[in-house]
């Protein structure tokens, strides 16, 4: 009887009358698969040690169906959907990390600049094994996110496993997370450094203003620029396209997407107008550079507008669409893949730098402990792909309030950064050759 009910419902809602032999075979196979599902459903209802509500069984079945597609597709219950929307707002009480499920733990893709996690020393690749007194083993990613979020000003203990180290505890005080996306410094005469920590709607506008400020401080136009996208988890696609267009001065594409349905096949074209007027650019990337940051690196690399330096990026090259369902439920499903202008897929491959660098320190020349995590290693899904949907005015206002003072100490720290040091030396050489 249960099978007959399912068959009737599916026939009425999703199936048309088969007109060809092939369609009849597909229809027959469909009902065989449906029968297997209903048999298991019936057995659980009759044999499981406790009575389980039909709603719970259906929700679990849908979750399994969606999560089995890829690491980024997920069926969201009302509480989870609300949590995702809070993440997208750009203002929430939390730690400020981009995470995914990794085996029995929660993996840090990257800490977000100037957030509690960043200040506490959380690093890309860290494996969170305990939140407070609760082990992460067996915990869903959503449960972990819920435990780490909380009222601003409250503390949480995170137990971290880092490569080549024993587990250790970090105490972090939750804050309202407002992401500062652009910072700029004049490293020395004629060499500008700009850090983009995430891509938001007004990021390109902020970047343009930041470079203009550096030109003013330099008392003349910059001869070269370092664009730092390390540990940048991505964000708004339009922000990445607009940033790329600030440096490209020829016709073509910034990025394009391909999916199964026409609306998923999009092309984002270049808009000519290089604000650096052809001056050399080095883009820094690493394992924590994902999504929108990979789009920028790939576009500038394919257009031969910048030299990409660092480590192979994360490899998050898929597009997710969030669909609001009835009664507060939601569906986040992968609908397309990103491709660079030359047709390279970013998904699970990442952007290969033109110049590969080791993760070392200028102070002790010892190799740093960075876990090599890639998109194709993930079992869970990324959070905070779109870190802000505030209005441009709100984001700009919050960033002006939180913008760090461009002081000498910051520049000194940057000069001790091996990646920045190597990029600076390369730009000096390119400038001399250009003359």
Could you characterize what this model shows?
- The chain has 435 residues and is an alpha+beta fold.
- It is built from twelve helices and 19 strands.
- It has helices spanning 2-13, 21-47, 54-67, 78-89, 116-120, 141-148, 203-218, 237-245, 292-302, 392-402, 408-415, 418-434; strands at 74-76, 91-94, 97-102, 105-111, 127-131, 134-135, 155-161, 168-173, 175-178, 182-188, 191-196, 224-228, 253-258, 266-269, 281-285, 307-310, 318-324, 330-339, 355-356.
- The strands form four sheets. Strands 3, 4, 5, 6, 7 and 8 form a six-stranded antiparallel sheet that branches. Strands 10-11-12-15-16-19 form a six-stranded mixed sheet, sandwiched between helices.
- A hairpin with a 2-residue loop joins strand 10 and strand 11.
- Helix 1 packs across helix 2, helix 7 runs parallel beside helix 8 and helix 8 (237-245) runs parallel beside helix 9 (292-302).
- The radius of gyration is 24 Å and the shape is globular.
- The N and C termini lie far apart (83 Å).
């Amino acid at each position: 009887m249960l099978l007959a009910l399912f068959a009737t419902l599916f026939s009425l809602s999703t199936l048309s009358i088969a007109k060809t032999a092939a369609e009849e075979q597909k229809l027959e196979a469909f009902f065989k698969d449906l029968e297997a599902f209903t048999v298991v459903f019936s057995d659980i209802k009759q044999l499981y040690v406790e009575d389980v509500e039909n709603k719970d069984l259906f929700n679990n079945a849908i979750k399994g169906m969606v999560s089995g597609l890829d690491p980024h597709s997920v069926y969201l219950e009302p509480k989870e959907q609300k949590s995702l929307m809070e993440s997208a707002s750009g203002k929430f009480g939390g730690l400020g990390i981009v995470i995914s499920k990794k085996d029995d733990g929660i993996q840090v893709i990257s800490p977000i600049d100037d957030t509690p996690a960043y200040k506490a020393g959380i690093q890309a690749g860290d494996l969170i094994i305990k939140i407070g007194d609760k082990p992460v083993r067996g915990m869903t990613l959503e449960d972990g996110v819920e435990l780490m979020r909380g009222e601003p000003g409250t503390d949480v203990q995170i137990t971290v496993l880092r490569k080549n180290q024993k587990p250790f505890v970090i105490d972090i005080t939750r804050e309202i997370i407002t992401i500062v996306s652009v910072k700029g410094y004049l490293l020395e005469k004629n060499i500008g450094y700009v850090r983009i920590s995430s891509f938001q709607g007004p990021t390109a506008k902020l970047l343009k203003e930041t470079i203009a400020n550096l030109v003013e401080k330099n008392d003349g136009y910059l001869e070269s620029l370092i664009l730092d996208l390390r540990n940048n988890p991505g964000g708004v696609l339009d922000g990445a396209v607009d940033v790329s267009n600030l440096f490209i001065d020829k016709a073509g594409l910034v990025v394009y997407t391909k999916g199964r349905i026409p609306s998923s096949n999009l092309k984002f074209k270049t808009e000519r107008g290089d604000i650096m007027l052809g001056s050399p650019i080095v883009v820094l990337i690493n394992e924590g550079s994902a999504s929108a940051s990979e789009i920028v690196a790939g576009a500038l690399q394919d257009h031969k507008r910048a030299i990409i330096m660092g480590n192979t990026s994360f490899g998050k090259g898929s597009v997710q669409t969030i669909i609001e369902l009835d009664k507060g439920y939601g569906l986040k499903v992968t609908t397309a893949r990103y491709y660079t202008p030359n047709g390279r897929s970013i998904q699970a491959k990442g952007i290969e730098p033109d110049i590969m660098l080791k993760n070392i320190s200028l102070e002790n020349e010892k190799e740093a402990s960075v876990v090599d995590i890639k998109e194709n290693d993930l079992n869970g899904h990324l959070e905070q792909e779109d870190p802000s949907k505030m209005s441009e005015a709100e984001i700009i206002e919050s960033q002006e309030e939180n913008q760090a003072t461009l002081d000498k100490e910051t520049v000194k720290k940057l000069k001790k950064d091996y990646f920045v040091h190597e990029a600076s030396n390369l730009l000096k050489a390119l400038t001399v050759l250009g003359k």
